[in-house]
Amino acid sequence: MKLYQSVGPNPHVVKMFIAEKSIEIPRVDIDVRGGVNRKADYLAINPRGQSPALLTDSGQLISEITAICEYLEELYPAPPLIGTTPEERSETRMWTRRVDLGFCEPMANGFRFSDALEWFSWRMRMIPEAAVGLKASAQDHLAWLEDQMADEPYLCGDRFTLADIMLFCFTDFGSHIGQGIPAELTRLTAWYDRVKERPSATAG
């Protein structure tokens, strides 16, 4: 296998997942700041021009972070980060999707359409008039998650899962661009601090 990686919250998810599994995968760093991911050589590998991307031993290219993590869970089931039963797996997938659609996507696009508008303008369609609403929507979802957490340590109760990894990587990124967890969300703040203590949180 070979992992094409870069900076950013999406690659961070896969790096953290791999670190939790304690597996070794050869890496190739892609200079996304320099636009290498949008040039012909990389587009020949991944036509979407995104990072990360995983090249399997059979030569299949897998992109999209959830698909990569699902594939690695199949190969390396221990420790389980998605689940060992249909109920556990469905719960993890439910929370992963809620985190992705409710927070990650609006937060990231709110950033792209405003703070990073100049940097992304030649890479994708920009909708700057949507930025304020997207950022507000992401914050609304964090407030909803605060209520859902109750007194559980993780999104799936006692189980640390892919859903936590995704939420951590994107809230960590958000904390550097003015879209972090508000201090009044004490349950989520405690959850963030708990996850940040894991050795995998700084995986590179």
Protein model, in words:
The protein has 8 helices and 4 strands; from the N terminus they run βαβαββαααααα. The chain is an alpha+beta fold and 204 residues long. The protein has 2 domains: 2-75, Glutaredoxin (3-Layer(aba) Sandwich); 86-202, Glutathione S-transferase Yfyf (Class Pi), Chain A, domain 2 (Up-down Bundle), CATH 1.20.1050.10. It has a 4-stranded mixed β-sheet, covered by helices on one side. The protein is globular, with a radius of gyration of 17 Å. It starts with a strand and ends in an 8-residue tail after the last helix.
Compact overview of the structure:
This protein is of the alpha+beta class and 204 residues long. Helix content is 51%, strand content 6%. The longest helix has 27 residues, at 86-112.
Instruction: State the end-to-end CA separation.
Output: 17 Å
Approximate strand percentage: 5-15%
Overall 3D geometry? globular
CATH class type of the largest domain: Mainly Alpha
What's the number of structural domains? 2
Helix content: 40-55%
Mean pLDDT: 93
| CATH architecture title of the largest domain | Up-down Bundle
Question: What structural class results from the helix and strand content?
Answer: alpha+beta
Strand order, sheet with most strands: 2-1-3-4
CATH topology of the largest domain: Glutathione S-transferase Yfyf (Class Pi), Chain A, domain 2
Put simply, the count of helices is 8
The Cα radius of gyration reads 17 Å
Give the assembly state of these chains.
single chain
Low-confidence stretches: none
Major β-sheet annotation: 4 strands, mixed
